[in-house]
Design a protein that fits this description.
homodimer; about 325 residues; alpha/beta; Rossmann fold; Hypothetical Protein Tm841, Chain: A,domain 3; 2 domains; six-stranded mixed beta sheet; about 30% helix
Protein backbone atom coordinates (compact mmCIF):
# COMPACT_ATOMS: atom_id res chain seq x y z
CA UNK A 1 0.00 0.00 0.00
CA UNK A 2 1.60 3.24 -1.18
CA UNK A 3 -0.37 6.29 -0.10
CA UNK A 4 0.37 9.71 1.30
CA UNK A 5 -0.09 8.64 4.89
CA UNK A 6 1.82 8.75 8.15
CA UNK A 7 0.00 6.32 10.43
CA UNK A 8 -3.08 4.40 9.36
CA UNK A 9 -4.99 5.53 12.44
CA UNK A 10 -4.31 9.19 11.67
CA UNK A 11 -5.20 9.18 7.99
CA UNK A 12 -8.62 10.78 8.30
CA UNK A 13 -7.61 13.25 11.01
CA UNK A 14 -4.63 14.53 9.05
CA UNK A 15 -6.46 14.64 5.75
CA UNK A 16 -9.29 16.65 7.30
CA UNK A 17 -6.81 18.96 9.02
CA UNK A 18 -5.20 19.66 5.66
CA UNK A 19 -8.59 20.17 4.04
CA UNK A 20 -9.76 22.60 6.72
CA UNK A 21 -6.50 24.54 6.59
CA UNK A 22 -6.62 24.78 2.81
CA UNK A 23 -10.20 26.10 2.90
CA UNK A 24 -10.22 28.12 6.09
CA UNK A 25 -12.06 30.92 4.30
CA UNK A 26 -15.05 28.63 3.75
CA UNK A 27 -15.19 25.89 6.38
CA UNK A 28 -14.53 25.11 10.02
CA UNK A 29 -13.51 21.66 11.22
CA UNK A 30 -15.07 20.51 14.48
CA UNK A 31 -13.37 17.88 16.61
CA UNK A 32 -15.14 15.45 18.96
CA UNK A 33 -17.38 14.78 17.26
CA UNK A 34 -15.88 15.33 13.83
CA UNK A 35 -17.74 17.38 11.26
CA UNK A 36 -17.04 20.13 8.74
CA UNK A 37 -19.32 23.13 8.71
CA UNK A 38 -19.70 26.38 6.83
CA UNK A 39 -17.79 29.23 8.35
CA UNK A 40 -20.60 31.70 7.70
CA UNK A 41 -24.17 30.64 8.35
CA UNK A 42 -27.29 32.27 6.96
CA UNK A 43 -29.99 33.00 9.52
CA UNK A 44 -33.35 31.40 8.81
CA UNK A 45 -32.06 29.08 6.08
CA UNK A 46 -32.82 25.36 6.06
CA UNK A 47 -29.54 23.64 6.97
CA UNK A 48 -28.36 20.86 4.65
CA UNK A 49 -26.36 18.22 6.51
CA UNK A 50 -24.85 15.27 4.72
CA UNK A 51 -22.13 12.76 5.43
CA UNK A 52 -20.97 9.24 4.84
CA UNK A 53 -17.85 7.18 4.88
CA UNK A 54 -14.64 8.93 3.85
CA UNK A 55 -12.74 7.93 0.73
CA UNK A 56 -15.25 9.53 -1.65
CA UNK A 57 -13.71 13.01 -1.63
CA UNK A 58 -14.59 15.65 -2.57
CA UNK A 59 -18.00 14.23 -1.54
CA UNK A 60 -19.24 15.45 0.98
CA UNK A 61 -16.86 17.84 2.77
CA UNK A 62 -15.76 19.44 -0.49
CA UNK A 63 -19.34 20.58 -1.06
CA UNK A 64 -19.76 22.51 2.18
CA UNK A 65 -20.26 26.19 1.42
CA UNK A 66 -22.56 28.72 -0.13
CA UNK A 67 -25.18 27.10 -2.37
CA UNK A 68 -24.63 23.51 -1.24
CA UNK A 69 -24.17 21.94 2.20
CA UNK A 70 -24.05 23.56 5.62
CA UNK A 71 -22.24 20.62 7.18
CA UNK A 72 -20.74 17.26 6.31
CA UNK A 73 -20.01 14.39 8.67
CA UNK A 74 -17.10 12.22 7.55
CA UNK A 75 -16.93 8.69 8.87
CA UNK A 76 -13.79 6.59 8.76
CA UNK A 77 -12.91 5.37 5.26
CA UNK A 78 -15.91 3.50 3.80
CA UNK A 79 -17.58 3.56 7.24
CA UNK A 80 -20.70 5.47 8.22
CA UNK A 81 -20.37 8.47 10.51
CA UNK A 82 -22.16 8.17 13.86
CA UNK A 83 -25.44 9.72 14.97
CA UNK A 84 -23.64 11.97 17.44
CA UNK A 85 -21.63 13.50 14.59
CA UNK A 86 -24.84 14.14 12.67
CA UNK A 87 -26.71 15.60 15.63
CA UNK A 88 -23.82 17.84 16.64
CA UNK A 89 -23.41 19.04 13.05
CA UNK A 90 -27.12 19.76 12.73
CA UNK A 91 -27.09 21.70 15.98
CA UNK A 92 -23.99 23.67 14.99
CA UNK A 93 -25.47 24.91 11.72
CA UNK A 94 -29.06 25.40 12.81
CA UNK A 95 -30.31 28.93 12.25
CA UNK A 96 -33.96 28.34 12.95
CA UNK A 97 -35.39 26.70 9.82
CA UNK A 98 -34.62 23.06 10.57
CA UNK A 99 -32.28 20.46 9.14
CA UNK A 100 -32.45 18.52 5.90
CA UNK A 101 -30.35 15.38 6.13
CA UNK A 102 -29.06 14.35 2.70
CA UNK A 103 -28.28 10.64 2.82
CA UNK A 104 -26.89 8.19 0.28
CA UNK A 105 -28.65 4.87 0.62
CA UNK A 106 -26.26 2.59 2.48
CA UNK A 107 -27.56 0.58 5.42
CA UNK A 108 -25.11 2.02 7.95
CA UNK A 109 -25.60 5.61 6.82
CA UNK A 110 -29.36 5.29 6.74
CA UNK A 111 -29.58 3.68 10.18
CA UNK A 112 -27.40 6.34 11.74
CA UNK A 113 -29.05 9.27 10.01
CA UNK A 114 -32.47 7.90 11.05
CA UNK A 115 -31.27 7.67 14.61
CA UNK A 116 -29.95 11.23 14.45
CA UNK A 117 -33.21 12.38 12.92
CA UNK A 118 -35.24 10.81 15.72
CA UNK A 119 -32.98 12.02 18.52
CA UNK A 120 -32.46 15.54 17.20
CA UNK A 121 -34.48 18.20 18.97
CA UNK A 122 -34.58 20.29 15.81
CA UNK A 123 -37.25 19.99 13.15
CA UNK A 124 -35.73 17.83 10.43
CA UNK A 125 -36.42 15.81 7.32
CA UNK A 126 -34.41 13.48 5.14
CA UNK A 127 -33.75 13.04 1.44
CA UNK A 128 -32.61 9.52 0.66
CA UNK A 129 -30.57 9.21 -2.53
CA UNK A 130 -30.71 5.92 -4.42
CA UNK A 131 -29.61 6.77 -7.94
CA UNK A 132 -27.52 3.67 -8.72
CA UNK A 133 -29.50 1.56 -11.18
CA UNK A 134 -26.94 -1.26 -11.23
CA UNK A 135 -28.46 -3.51 -8.59
CA UNK A 136 -31.35 -3.81 -6.17
CA UNK A 137 -29.87 -4.68 -2.78
CA UNK A 138 -26.11 -4.91 -2.52
CA UNK A 139 -23.35 -5.75 -0.06
CA UNK A 140 -24.21 -2.79 2.15
CA UNK A 141 -27.65 -1.78 0.95
CA UNK A 142 -31.29 -2.66 1.05
CA UNK A 143 -32.68 -1.26 -2.18
CA UNK A 144 -30.58 0.76 -4.60
CA UNK A 145 -27.33 2.42 -3.63
CA UNK A 146 -26.81 6.16 -3.51
CA UNK A 147 -23.80 7.30 -5.53
CA UNK A 148 -22.73 10.33 -7.62
CA UNK A 149 -26.29 11.63 -7.93
CA UNK A 150 -25.67 13.03 -4.46
CA UNK A 151 -23.65 15.85 -6.03
CA UNK A 152 -26.65 16.93 -8.08
CA UNK A 153 -29.07 16.70 -5.17
CA UNK A 154 -26.74 18.71 -2.96
CA UNK A 155 -26.21 21.38 -5.61
CA UNK A 156 -29.86 21.82 -6.53
CA UNK A 157 -31.42 21.60 -3.07
CA UNK A 158 -28.57 23.69 -1.68
CA UNK A 159 -29.46 26.40 -4.15
CA UNK A 160 -33.16 26.22 -3.33
CA UNK A 161 -32.41 26.48 0.39
CA UNK A 162 -30.47 29.72 -0.22
CA UNK A 163 -33.65 31.29 -1.60
CA UNK A 164 -35.43 30.86 1.73
CA UNK A 165 -37.51 27.79 0.86
CA UNK A 166 -38.78 25.92 3.91
CA UNK A 167 -37.92 22.42 5.08
CA UNK A 168 -40.89 20.79 3.39
CA UNK A 169 -40.11 22.45 0.06
CA UNK A 170 -36.45 21.46 0.25
CA UNK A 171 -37.31 17.85 1.03
CA UNK A 172 -39.88 17.67 -1.78
CA UNK A 173 -37.37 19.14 -4.23
CA UNK A 174 -34.69 16.67 -3.13
CA UNK A 175 -37.06 13.73 -3.54
CA UNK A 176 -38.05 14.97 -6.98
CA UNK A 177 -34.42 15.36 -8.10
CA UNK A 178 -33.57 11.90 -6.81
CA UNK A 179 -36.47 10.43 -8.77
CA UNK A 180 -35.17 12.04 -11.95
CA UNK A 181 -31.54 11.03 -11.44
CA UNK A 182 -29.91 7.72 -12.29
CA UNK A 183 -26.32 6.49 -12.33
CA UNK A 184 -24.21 3.48 -13.10
CA UNK A 185 -20.47 2.93 -12.81
CA UNK A 186 -17.69 0.67 -13.97
CA UNK A 187 -14.45 -0.25 -12.23
CA UNK A 188 -11.16 -1.01 -13.95
CA UNK A 189 -9.22 -1.49 -10.74
CA UNK A 190 -9.79 -2.09 -7.06
CA UNK A 191 -8.78 0.19 -4.19
CA UNK A 192 -7.17 -0.19 -0.79
CA UNK A 193 -8.76 1.02 2.44
CA UNK A 194 -5.84 2.26 4.58
CA UNK A 195 -6.94 0.36 7.69
CA UNK A 196 -7.22 -2.87 5.69
CA UNK A 197 -3.98 -2.46 3.78
CA UNK A 198 -5.03 -4.87 1.05
CA UNK A 199 -7.15 -4.57 -2.06
CA UNK A 200 -10.91 -4.41 -1.45
CA UNK A 201 -11.48 -6.88 -4.27
CA UNK A 202 -9.44 -8.56 -6.99
CA UNK A 203 -9.94 -7.92 -10.66
CA UNK A 204 -8.03 -9.42 -13.57
CA UNK A 205 -5.83 -7.42 -15.96
CA UNK A 206 -8.42 -7.77 -18.71
CA UNK A 207 -11.54 -7.55 -16.56
CA UNK A 208 -13.93 -4.78 -15.61
CA UNK A 209 -16.74 -4.68 -13.05
CA UNK A 210 -19.87 -3.23 -14.62
CA UNK A 211 -22.23 -1.63 -12.11
CA UNK A 212 -19.65 -1.42 -9.33
CA UNK A 213 -20.59 0.38 -6.12
CA UNK A 214 -18.48 3.18 -4.68
CA UNK A 215 -16.97 0.83 -2.11
CA UNK A 216 -16.12 -1.81 -4.68
CA UNK A 217 -19.36 -3.72 -4.21
CA UNK A 218 -20.09 -6.19 -7.01
CA UNK A 219 -22.14 -4.79 -9.85
CA UNK A 220 -24.14 -6.51 -12.56
CA UNK A 221 -21.38 -8.47 -14.13
CA UNK A 222 -17.68 -9.04 -14.34
CA UNK A 223 -16.71 -9.00 -17.95
CA UNK A 224 -13.82 -8.53 -20.35
CA UNK A 225 -12.42 -5.07 -20.91
CA UNK A 226 -14.26 -3.27 -23.70
CA UNK A 227 -14.05 -0.07 -25.74
CA UNK A 228 -15.28 3.17 -24.19
CA UNK A 229 -18.22 3.34 -26.60
CA UNK A 230 -19.36 -0.13 -25.57
CA UNK A 231 -19.00 0.63 -21.86
CA UNK A 232 -20.88 3.90 -22.24
CA UNK A 233 -23.63 2.13 -24.17
CA UNK A 234 -24.06 -0.51 -21.47
CA UNK A 235 -24.22 2.05 -18.66
CA UNK A 236 -26.50 4.41 -20.57
CA UNK A 237 -28.86 1.66 -21.67
CA UNK A 238 -29.41 0.72 -18.04
CA UNK A 239 -29.75 4.34 -16.92
CA UNK A 240 -32.17 5.34 -19.66
CA UNK A 241 -34.26 2.20 -19.15
CA UNK A 242 -34.67 3.33 -15.56
CA UNK A 243 -35.20 7.06 -16.11
CA UNK A 244 -37.34 6.79 -19.23
CA UNK A 245 -36.71 10.37 -20.31
CA UNK A 246 -39.56 11.67 -22.46
CA UNK A 247 -39.24 13.21 -25.90
CA UNK A 248 -37.57 16.60 -25.70
CA UNK A 249 -36.07 15.89 -22.28
CA UNK A 250 -33.09 18.00 -21.33
CA UNK A 251 -30.39 16.17 -19.47
CA UNK A 252 -27.67 17.04 -17.04
CA UNK A 253 -24.80 14.63 -17.71
CA UNK A 254 -22.30 13.98 -14.94
CA UNK A 255 -19.22 11.99 -15.93
CA UNK A 256 -17.67 11.09 -12.61
CA UNK A 257 -14.19 9.66 -12.15
CA UNK A 258 -13.78 7.11 -9.36
CA UNK A 259 -10.40 8.49 -8.27
CA UNK A 260 -7.69 6.86 -10.35
CA UNK A 261 -8.87 7.74 -13.84
CA UNK A 262 -7.34 10.83 -15.45
CA UNK A 263 -9.39 13.71 -16.78
CA UNK A 264 -8.47 13.03 -20.42
CA UNK A 265 -10.22 9.66 -20.24
CA UNK A 266 -13.28 11.16 -18.56
CA UNK A 267 -13.65 13.59 -21.46
CA UNK A 268 -13.38 10.70 -23.88
CA UNK A 269 -16.12 8.90 -21.95
CA UNK A 270 -18.22 12.05 -22.20
CA UNK A 271 -17.65 12.02 -25.94
CA UNK A 272 -18.95 8.44 -26.13
CA UNK A 273 -21.88 9.43 -23.94
CA UNK A 274 -22.93 12.41 -26.01
CA UNK A 275 -22.79 10.38 -29.25
CA UNK A 276 -25.00 7.72 -27.71
CA UNK A 277 -27.51 10.25 -26.39
CA UNK A 278 -27.48 12.23 -29.62
CA UNK A 279 -28.34 9.12 -31.64
CA UNK A 280 -31.42 8.68 -29.45
CA UNK A 281 -32.57 12.27 -29.73
CA UNK A 282 -31.78 13.08 -26.10
CA UNK A 283 -30.55 16.63 -25.53
CA UNK A 284 -27.70 17.50 -23.19
CA UNK A 285 -28.47 20.75 -21.41
CA UNK A 286 -25.71 20.76 -18.79
CA UNK A 287 -22.43 18.86 -18.36
CA UNK A 288 -20.12 18.22 -15.45
CA UNK A 289 -16.94 16.17 -15.88
CA UNK A 290 -14.66 15.41 -12.95
CA UNK A 291 -13.85 13.11 -10.05
CA UNK A 292 -16.52 14.22 -7.58
CA UNK A 293 -17.68 10.97 -5.96
CA UNK A 294 -14.69 8.71 -5.72
CA UNK A 295 -13.68 5.34 -4.32
CA UNK A 296 -10.20 6.17 -3.12
CA UNK A 297 -7.82 5.48 -6.02
CA UNK A 298 -10.15 3.16 -7.95
CA UNK A 299 -9.80 3.45 -11.72
CA UNK A 300 -13.13 3.71 -13.44
CA UNK A 301 -16.02 6.09 -13.78
CA UNK A 302 -19.75 6.46 -13.49
CA UNK A 303 -22.29 8.17 -15.66
CA UNK A 304 -25.20 10.04 -14.09
CA UNK A 305 -28.14 11.47 -16.00
CA UNK A 306 -30.61 13.85 -14.47
CA UNK A 307 -33.76 14.90 -16.33
CA UNK A 308 -33.92 18.63 -15.79
CA UNK A 309 -36.91 20.90 -15.59
CA UNK A 310 -36.64 24.69 -15.63
CA UNK A 311 -36.48 24.98 -11.85
CA UNK A 312 -33.71 22.39 -11.68
CA UNK A 313 -31.79 24.11 -14.48
CA UNK A 314 -31.99 27.42 -12.66
CA UNK A 315 -30.69 25.88 -9.45
CA UNK A 316 -27.87 24.10 -11.26
CA UNK A 317 -26.74 27.40 -12.79
CA UNK A 318 -27.00 29.44 -9.61
CA UNK A 319 -23.83 30.59 -7.84
CA UNK A 320 -21.98 28.09 -5.68
CA UNK A 321 -18.87 28.53 -3.59
CA UNK A 322 -17.49 25.38 -2.02
CA UNK A 323 -13.97 23.92 -1.99
CA UNK A 324 -14.68 21.64 -4.96
CA UNK A 325 -17.55 23.20 -6.88
CA UNK A 326 -17.49 26.89 -7.55
CA UNK A 327 -19.03 29.20 -10.08
CA UNK A 328 -20.78 32.51 -10.31
CA UNK A 329 -18.90 33.98 -7.35
CA UNK B 1 -3.96 -1.44 -20.48
CA UNK B 2 -7.45 -0.56 -19.20
CA UNK B 3 -8.47 2.95 -20.18
CA UNK B 4 -11.57 4.68 -21.49
CA UNK B 5 -10.49 4.43 -25.10
CA UNK B 6 -11.87 3.14 -28.38
CA UNK B 7 -8.86 3.01 -30.70
CA UNK B 8 -5.39 4.05 -29.65
CA UNK B 9 -5.03 6.32 -32.66
CA UNK B 10 -8.24 8.19 -31.79
CA UNK B 11 -7.58 8.74 -28.11
CA UNK B 12 -6.57 12.39 -28.33
CA UNK B 13 -9.13 13.31 -30.98
CA UNK B 14 -12.03 11.84 -29.03
CA UNK B 15 -10.86 13.19 -25.69
CA UNK B 16 -10.56 16.69 -27.15
CA UNK B 17 -13.94 16.39 -28.83
CA UNK B 18 -15.49 15.53 -25.46
CA UNK B 19 -13.62 18.38 -23.80
CA UNK B 20 -14.73 20.93 -26.39
CA UNK B 21 -18.33 19.72 -26.24
CA UNK B 22 -18.38 19.87 -22.45
CA UNK B 23 -17.05 23.43 -22.46
CA UNK B 24 -18.60 24.86 -25.59
CA UNK B 25 -19.48 28.02 -23.68
CA UNK B 26 -15.79 28.77 -23.16
CA UNK B 27 -13.67 27.18 -25.87
CA UNK B 28 -13.56 26.28 -29.54
CA UNK B 29 -11.63 23.28 -30.87
CA UNK B 30 -9.78 23.80 -34.13
CA UNK B 31 -8.94 20.85 -36.36
CA UNK B 32 -5.98 20.67 -38.75
CA UNK B 33 -3.99 21.88 -37.05
CA UNK B 34 -5.34 21.01 -33.62
CA UNK B 35 -5.64 23.67 -30.97
CA UNK B 36 -8.13 24.87 -28.38
CA UNK B 37 -8.90 28.56 -28.23
CA UNK B 38 -11.08 30.91 -26.25
CA UNK B 39 -14.51 31.38 -27.70
CA UNK B 40 -14.54 35.09 -26.95
CA UNK B 41 -11.40 37.11 -27.57
CA UNK B 42 -10.56 40.49 -26.09
CA UNK B 43 -9.40 43.08 -28.61
CA UNK B 44 -5.97 44.55 -27.91
CA UNK B 45 -5.03 41.98 -25.26
CA UNK B 46 -1.72 40.12 -25.34
CA UNK B 47 -2.58 36.55 -26.33
CA UNK B 48 -1.22 33.77 -24.13
CA UNK B 49 -0.57 30.59 -26.09
CA UNK B 50 0.71 27.46 -24.39
CA UNK B 51 0.81 23.79 -25.22
CA UNK B 52 2.71 20.59 -24.74
CA UNK B 53 2.23 16.89 -24.88
CA UNK B 54 -1.18 15.59 -23.86
CA UNK B 55 -1.62 13.41 -20.79
CA UNK B 56 -1.15 16.27 -18.34
CA UNK B 57 -4.80 17.38 -18.26
CA UNK B 58 -6.21 19.75 -17.24
CA UNK B 59 -2.91 21.41 -18.28
CA UNK B 60 -3.05 23.22 -20.74
CA UNK B 61 -6.44 23.05 -22.48
CA UNK B 62 -8.33 23.18 -19.18
CA UNK B 63 -6.84 26.61 -18.54
CA UNK B 64 -8.07 28.27 -21.72
CA UNK B 65 -10.50 31.02 -20.82
CA UNK B 66 -10.87 34.39 -19.18
CA UNK B 67 -7.93 35.23 -16.95
CA UNK B 68 -5.58 32.52 -18.21
CA UNK B 69 -4.75 31.24 -21.70
CA UNK B 70 -6.09 32.31 -25.07
CA UNK B 71 -5.09 29.07 -26.75
CA UNK B 72 -3.52 25.70 -25.99
CA UNK B 73 -1.85 23.35 -28.45
CA UNK B 74 -2.09 19.70 -27.42
CA UNK B 75 0.44 17.29 -28.84
CA UNK B 76 -0.03 13.55 -28.85
CA UNK B 77 0.36 11.99 -25.39
CA UNK B 78 3.76 12.98 -23.95
CA UNK B 79 4.77 14.39 -27.36
CA UNK B 80 5.34 18.02 -28.25
CA UNK B 81 2.84 19.81 -30.46
CA UNK B 82 4.20 21.04 -33.77
CA UNK B 83 5.16 24.58 -34.81
CA UNK B 84 2.23 24.75 -37.23
CA UNK B 85 -0.20 24.16 -34.36
CA UNK B 86 1.44 26.95 -32.39
CA UNK B 87 1.54 29.40 -35.28
CA UNK B 88 -2.07 28.72 -36.24
CA UNK B 89 -3.20 29.10 -32.64
CA UNK B 90 -1.31 32.36 -32.27
CA UNK B 91 -2.84 33.70 -35.44
CA UNK B 92 -6.33 32.61 -34.43
CA UNK B 93 -6.26 34.46 -31.11
CA UNK B 94 -4.29 37.51 -32.14
CA UNK B 95 -6.14 40.73 -31.45
CA UNK B 96 -3.31 43.14 -32.11
CA UNK B 97 -1.09 43.06 -29.03
CA UNK B 98 1.13 40.11 -29.89
CA UNK B 99 1.59 36.60 -28.56
CA UNK B 100 3.21 35.37 -25.40
CA UNK B 101 4.21 31.73 -25.75
CA UNK B 102 4.19 29.99 -22.37
CA UNK B 103 6.47 26.97 -22.59
CA UNK B 104 7.45 24.24 -20.15
CA UNK B 105 11.11 23.42 -20.58
CA UNK B 106 11.25 20.17 -22.53
CA UNK B 107 13.57 19.91 -25.51
CA UNK B 108 10.85 19.09 -28.03
CA UNK B 109 8.47 21.77 -26.77
CA UNK B 110 11.18 24.41 -26.65
CA UNK B 111 12.48 23.61 -30.12
CA UNK B 112 9.03 23.75 -31.64
CA UNK B 113 7.93 26.88 -29.83
CA UNK B 114 11.18 28.58 -30.84
CA UNK B 115 10.52 27.64 -34.42
CA UNK B 116 6.96 28.97 -34.18
CA UNK B 117 8.27 32.14 -32.58
CA UNK B 118 10.73 32.72 -35.40
CA UNK B 119 8.30 31.87 -38.18
CA UNK B 120 5.32 33.76 -36.77
CA UNK B 121 4.61 37.08 -38.44
CA UNK B 122 3.14 38.43 -35.21
CA UNK B 123 5.15 40.17 -32.52
CA UNK B 124 5.81 37.52 -29.88
CA UNK B 125 7.84 36.65 -26.83
CA UNK B 126 8.33 33.53 -24.76
CA UNK B 127 8.28 32.63 -21.08
CA UNK B 128 10.20 29.44 -20.41
CA UNK B 129 9.15 27.61 -17.26
CA UNK B 130 11.74 25.50 -15.48
CA UNK B 131 10.42 25.12 -11.94
CA UNK B 132 11.41 21.50 -11.29
CA UNK B 133 14.35 21.54 -8.87
CA UNK B 134 14.81 17.76 -8.93
CA UNK B 135 17.46 17.52 -11.62
CA UNK B 136 19.55 19.57 -14.01
CA UNK B 137 19.19 17.98 -17.44
CA UNK B 138 16.90 14.99 -17.75
CA UNK B 139 15.67 12.44 -20.27
CA UNK B 140 13.96 15.08 -22.37
CA UNK B 141 15.48 18.31 -21.10
CA UNK B 142 18.52 20.49 -21.18
CA UNK B 143 18.40 22.35 -17.90
CA UNK B 144 15.56 22.02 -15.45
CA UNK B 145 12.15 20.68 -16.40
CA UNK B 146 8.99 22.74 -16.42
CA UNK B 147 6.20 21.16 -14.41
CA UNK B 148 3.24 22.27 -12.24
CA UNK B 149 4.57 25.79 -11.84
CA UNK B 150 3.07 26.34 -15.29
CA UNK B 151 -0.36 26.62 -13.66
CA UNK B 152 0.81 29.53 -11.54
CA UNK B 153 2.54 31.30 -14.42
CA UNK B 154 -0.54 30.91 -16.61
CA UNK B 155 -2.89 32.18 -13.89
CA UNK B 156 -0.81 35.20 -12.91
CA UNK B 157 0.33 36.34 -16.35
CA UNK B 158 -3.13 35.59 -17.71
CA UNK B 159 -4.56 37.97 -15.15
CA UNK B 160 -2.02 40.68 -15.94
CA UNK B 161 -2.77 40.38 -19.65
CA UNK B 162 -6.46 41.01 -18.97
CA UNK B 163 -5.54 44.41 -17.48
CA UNK B 164 -4.11 45.54 -20.83
CA UNK B 165 -0.42 45.09 -20.01
CA UNK B 166 1.80 44.94 -23.10
CA UNK B 167 3.85 42.02 -24.38
CA UNK B 168 7.05 43.15 -22.70
CA UNK B 169 5.33 43.55 -19.33
CA UNK B 170 3.69 40.15 -19.62
CA UNK B 171 6.97 38.46 -20.48
CA UNK B 172 8.81 40.19 -17.65
CA UNK B 173 6.10 39.19 -15.19
CA UNK B 174 6.20 35.59 -16.39
CA UNK B 175 9.97 35.43 -16.04
CA UNK B 176 9.75 36.90 -12.55
CA UNK B 177 7.09 34.38 -11.47
CA UNK B 178 9.12 31.51 -12.88
CA UNK B 179 12.15 32.68 -10.91
CA UNK B 180 10.13 32.65 -7.71
CA UNK B 181 8.51 29.27 -8.30
CA UNK B 182 9.96 25.85 -7.56
CA UNK B 183 8.54 22.34 -7.62
CA UNK B 184 9.44 18.74 -6.96
CA UNK B 185 7.41 15.56 -7.31
CA UNK B 186 7.31 11.95 -6.24
CA UNK B 187 5.84 8.95 -8.05
CA UNK B 188 4.30 5.92 -6.39
CA UNK B 189 3.36 4.24 -9.65
CA UNK B 190 4.11 4.38 -13.34
CA UNK B 191 1.70 5.19 -16.16
CA UNK B 192 0.88 3.83 -19.59
CA UNK B 193 0.97 5.91 -22.75
CA UNK B 194 -1.91 4.58 -24.90
CA UNK B 195 0.20 4.26 -28.05
CA UNK B 196 2.86 2.30 -26.15
CA UNK B 197 0.44 0.06 -24.26
CA UNK B 198 3.00 -0.79 -21.59
CA UNK B 199 4.22 0.91 -18.43
CA UNK B 200 6.54 3.87 -18.99
CA UNK B 201 8.82 2.59 -16.23
CA UNK B 202 8.78 -0.14 -13.60
CA UNK B 203 8.67 0.57 -9.90
CA UNK B 204 8.59 -1.94 -7.07
CA UNK B 205 5.68 -2.36 -4.64
CA UNK B 206 7.67 -0.71 -1.86
CA UNK B 207 9.53 1.86 -3.95
CA UNK B 208 8.99 5.51 -4.82
CA UNK B 209 10.72 7.75 -7.35
CA UNK B 210 11.70 11.03 -5.68
CA UNK B 211 11.99 13.93 -8.10
CA UNK B 212 10.11 12.20 -10.92
CA UNK B 213 9.31 14.18 -14.06
CA UNK B 214 5.79 14.47 -15.44
CA UNK B 215 6.55 11.87 -18.10
CA UNK B 216 8.02 9.42 -15.63
CA UNK B 217 11.59 10.64 -16.11
CA UNK B 218 13.98 9.49 -13.38
CA UNK B 219 14.30 11.85 -10.45
CA UNK B 220 16.94 12.17 -7.78
CA UNK B 221 16.65 8.74 -6.31
CA UNK B 222 14.66 5.57 -6.17
CA UNK B 223 14.04 4.76 -2.55
CA UNK B 224 11.80 2.81 -0.19
CA UNK B 225 8.28 4.00 0.44
CA UNK B 226 8.17 6.50 3.30
CA UNK B 227 5.65 8.37 5.45
CA UNK B 228 3.98 11.47 4.01
CA UNK B 229 5.82 13.73 6.47
CA UNK B 230 9.17 12.35 5.34
CA UNK B 231 8.31 12.68 1.66
CA UNK B 232 7.07 16.25 2.16
CA UNK B 233 10.23 17.10 4.07
CA UNK B 234 12.48 15.77 1.29
CA UNK B 235 10.61 17.65 -1.43
CA UNK B 236 10.35 20.86 0.58
CA UNK B 237 13.99 20.81 1.61
CA UNK B 238 15.01 20.74 -2.04
CA UNK B 239 12.48 23.38 -3.03
CA UNK B 240 13.35 25.79 -0.23
CA UNK B 241 17.09 25.33 -0.82
CA UNK B 242 16.46 26.49 -4.36
CA UNK B 243 13.98 29.31 -3.70
CA UNK B 244 15.63 30.64 -0.53
CA UNK B 245 12.53 32.49 0.63
CA UNK B 246 13.45 35.42 2.86
CA UNK B 247 12.12 36.09 6.33
CA UNK B 248 8.47 37.06 6.20
CA UNK B 249 7.98 35.55 2.75
CA UNK B 250 4.43 34.73 1.82
CA UNK B 251 3.99 31.53 -0.14
CA UNK B 252 1.53 30.11 -2.57
CA UNK B 253 1.47 26.35 -2.01
CA UNK B 254 0.29 24.11 -4.83
CA UNK B 255 -0.21 20.44 -3.94
CA UNK B 256 -0.58 18.79 -7.30
CA UNK B 257 -1.79 15.23 -7.83
CA UNK B 258 -0.18 13.34 -10.72
CA UNK B 259 -3.45 11.74 -11.80
CA UNK B 260 -3.98 8.54 -9.81
CA UNK B 261 -3.81 9.92 -6.28
CA UNK B 262 -7.12 10.73 -4.60
CA UNK B 263 -7.94 14.12 -3.16
CA UNK B 264 -7.97 12.89 0.45
CA UNK B 265 -4.28 12.00 0.18
CA UNK B 266 -3.44 15.34 -1.41
CA UNK B 267 -4.99 17.14 1.56
CA UNK B 268 -2.95 14.95 3.88
CA UNK B 269 0.18 15.92 1.95
CA UNK B 270 -0.82 19.56 2.31
CA UNK B 271 -1.12 18.99 6.05
CA UNK B 272 2.44 17.62 6.16
CA UNK B 273 3.57 20.56 4.02
CA UNK B 274 2.04 23.24 6.19
CA UNK B 275 3.53 21.72 9.38
CA UNK B 276 6.98 21.69 7.79
CA UNK B 277 6.68 25.28 6.58
CA UNK B 278 5.21 26.46 9.87
CA UNK B 279 8.14 25.02 11.81
CA UNK B 280 10.47 27.12 9.64
CA UNK B 281 8.51 30.33 10.04
CA UNK B 282 7.33 30.36 6.43
CA UNK B 283 3.83 31.76 5.94
CA UNK B 284 1.29 30.25 3.59
CA UNK B 285 -0.70 33.02 1.92
CA UNK B 286 -2.56 31.01 -0.73
CA UNK B 287 -3.28 27.31 -1.26
CA UNK B 288 -4.34 25.23 -4.23
CA UNK B 289 -4.87 21.47 -3.90
CA UNK B 290 -5.82 19.32 -6.87
CA UNK B 291 -4.66 17.31 -9.85
CA UNK B 292 -3.78 20.12 -12.25
CA UNK B 293 -0.59 18.92 -13.95
CA UNK B 294 -0.85 15.19 -14.28
CA UNK B 295 1.02 12.26 -15.81
CA UNK B 296 -1.91 10.21 -17.04
CA UNK B 297 -2.91 7.87 -14.19
CA UNK B 298 0.39 8.06 -12.30
CA UNK B 299 0.00 7.87 -8.51
CA UNK B 300 2.02 10.51 -6.74
CA UNK B 301 2.12 14.24 -6.28
CA UNK B 302 4.28 17.30 -6.53
CA UNK B 303 4.69 20.29 -4.28
CA UNK B 304 5.16 23.75 -5.75
CA UNK B 305 6.03 26.84 -3.76
CA UNK B 306 5.83 30.32 -5.19
CA UNK B 307 7.12 33.33 -3.26
CA UNK B 308 4.41 35.92 -3.69
CA UNK B 309 4.64 39.66 -3.79
CA UNK B 310 1.61 41.95 -3.63
CA UNK B 311 1.21 42.12 -7.40
CA UNK B 312 1.35 38.33 -7.69
CA UNK B 313 -1.15 37.92 -4.87
CA UNK B 314 -3.56 40.29 -6.58
CA UNK B 315 -3.29 38.41 -9.86
CA UNK B 316 -3.77 35.04 -8.13
CA UNK B 317 -6.97 36.31 -6.51
CA UNK B 318 -8.39 37.93 -9.64
CA UNK B 319 -11.36 36.34 -11.42
CA UNK B 320 -10.71 33.37 -13.67
CA UNK B 321 -13.11 31.36 -15.79
CA UNK B 322 -11.65 28.31 -17.46
CA UNK B 323 -12.86 24.70 -17.58
CA UNK B 324 -10.64 23.65 -14.67
CA UNK B 325 -9.91 26.79 -12.66
CA UNK B 326 -12.72 29.15 -11.89
CA UNK B 327 -13.44 31.74 -9.28
CA UNK B 328 -14.79 35.24 -8.93
CA UNK B 329 -17.16 34.84 -11.88
Amino acid sequence: MKKFINHVDDFLTESLAGFAAAHGDLVVLNHEPVFVRRKTLKPGKVALVSGGGSGHEPLHSGFVGYGMLDAACPGQVFTSPTPDQMMAAAKAVDTGAGTLFVVKNYSGDLMNFEMASEMSELPNAMVLINDDVAVENSSYTTGRRGVAGAVIVEKLVGSLAETGADLEQCKAFGDRINKHTASMGVAFSSCTVPAAGTLTFKIGDDEIEVGVGIHGEPGRRRTRFAAADAIAAELLTAIVADLKPGNGSELLVLINGLGGTPLGELYLLFNSTRSWLHQRGLAIARVQVGSLTTSLEMAGASITLCVLDDEMKRHWDSPVHTPSLRWGM
